[in-house]
């Protein structure tokens, strides 16, 4: 277990100041376009560092940043989202980290949700955005569709789709079908299928994942499971890797500092399917105004 033995008064004050700056900046943007005061902001940010060691690879590192600005006065469901590309990647499972230590050299995504509506049981969202690194911009138009197929006391089944069309006429489509079953109180079984096609590489990717999740109170949880990652490109099918994994999560200081420890075993194609032991440690900080 981790414990917070540092000077909590200074830490809390610093965290509260950053949260106020974040929310006030969001409100000021909202108020600039529409007069009046904004209340109950849902603006949040998250900063996460990751470090991983693996028996068949060198140590890896990643820094993640997510910023969600809520702008309810401009439009009820409008959000401005800024995040690194790994956080935006729906197939990212942390089995490969970017190793980029300089924030200014990372790749980012900036998105604005401009429309949110229901069409025949589908929740449809339209977004405008750009993928960029320093001064290189790649604008895109995106549509997200979500439909809850089953939702009762024992199970939930959800279909998701995300389509992006870029300025260079390439496109990307991600489709997922996920199911969660409640085994008993605080114990769940999750089955995920995520498929992606990218036109620029003519590559099809598929991740199938089965996870058992146990809630250990309000701030801790333990997950264990297996996943299977494969690709199909130019008529060739490859198994990228199977994986078995465990993850322990704990929100160890109030409701805004957490850590995760994730040991796993992978059989990677690049290593001729030799078993490799991987251990990853994440430390995250959440910024939001209570």
List its salient traits:
mainly beta; 290 residues; single chain; 62% strand; globular; Porin; 14-stranded antiparallel barrel
Explain briefly what this protein structure is.
The chain is mostly beta strands and 290 residues long. Helices cover 10% and strands 62% of the residues. The protein has helices at residues 8-33, 85-88; strands spanning 44-54, 57-70, 79-84, 108-119, 122-133, 136-151, 155-166, 171-184, 187-198, 203-215, 220-233, 236-253, 257-267, 275-288.
3D structure, described in words:
10% of the residues lie in helices and 62% in strands. The chain has 290 residues and is mainly beta. The chain has a single domain, classed as Porin, CATH 2.40.160. The chain has a 14-stranded antiparallel β-barrel with strand order 1-2-3-4-5-6-7-8-9-10-11-12-13-14. It is globular and about 60 Å long.
List the helices and strands and how they pair.
Blueprint: H1 8-33, E1 44-54, E2 57-70, E3 79-84, H2 85-88, E4 108-119, E5 122-133, E6 136-151, E7 155-166, E8 171-184, E9 187-198, E10 203-215, E11 220-233, E12 236-253, E13 257-267, E14 275-288
Antiparallel strand pairs: 1-2, 1-14, 2-3, 3-4, 4-5, 5-6, 6-7, 7-8, 8-9, 9-10, 10-11, 11-12, 12-13, 13-14
Q: How much is the average pLDDT?
A: 88
Q: Kindly estimate the percentage of residues that lie in beta strands according to DSSP.
A: over 45%
Q: Number of DSSP helices?
A: 2
What string, H for helix and E for strand, traces the elements in order? HEEEHEEEEEEEEEEE
Helicity range: 10-25%
Structural class determined from secondary elements: mainly beta
Given the C-alpha coordinates, what overall shape results? Answer: globular
Write down the CATH class: Mainly Beta
CATH fold-level label:
Porin
Overall tally of domains: 1
Terminal residue distance: 26 Å
- How many beta-strand elements? 14
């Amino acid at each position: 277990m981790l414990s917070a033995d540092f000077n909590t008064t200074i830490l809390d004050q610093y965290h509260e100041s950053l949260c106020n700056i974040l929310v006030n900046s969001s409100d000021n943007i909202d108020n600039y376009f529409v007069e009046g005061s904004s209340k109950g902001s849902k603006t949040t940010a998250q900063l996460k560092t990751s470090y991983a060691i693996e028996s068949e690879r060198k140590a890896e590192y990643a820094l993640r940043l997510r910023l969600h600005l809520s702008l309810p006065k401009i439009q009820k469901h409008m959000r401005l989202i800024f995040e690194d590309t790994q956080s935006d990647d729906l197939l990212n499972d942390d089995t490969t980290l970017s190793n980029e230590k300089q924030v200014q050299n990372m790749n980012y995504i900036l998105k604005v949700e401009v429309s949110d509506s229901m069409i025949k049981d589908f929740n449809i969202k339209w977004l405008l955005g750009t993928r960029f690194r320093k001064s290189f911009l790649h604008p895109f138009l995106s549509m997200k569709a979500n439909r809850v197929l089953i939702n009762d006391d024992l199970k939930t089944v959800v279909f998701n789709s995300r389509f992006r069309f870029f300025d260079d006429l390439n496109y990307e489509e991600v489709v997922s079908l996920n199911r969660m079953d409640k085994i008993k109180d605080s114990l769940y079984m999750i089955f995920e299928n995520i498929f992606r096609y990218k036109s620029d590489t003519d590559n099809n990717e598929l991740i199938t994942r089965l996870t058992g999740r146990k809630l250990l109170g309000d701030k801790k949880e333990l997950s264990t499971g297996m996943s299977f990652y494969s690709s199909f490109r130019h008529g060739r099918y490859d198994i990228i890797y199977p994986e078995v994994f465990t993850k322990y999560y704990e929100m160890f200081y109030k409701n805004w500092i957490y850590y995760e420890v994730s040991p796993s075993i992978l059989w990677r194609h690049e290593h001729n399917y030799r078993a490799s032991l991987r251990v990853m440690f994440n430390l995250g900080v959440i910024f939001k105004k209570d």
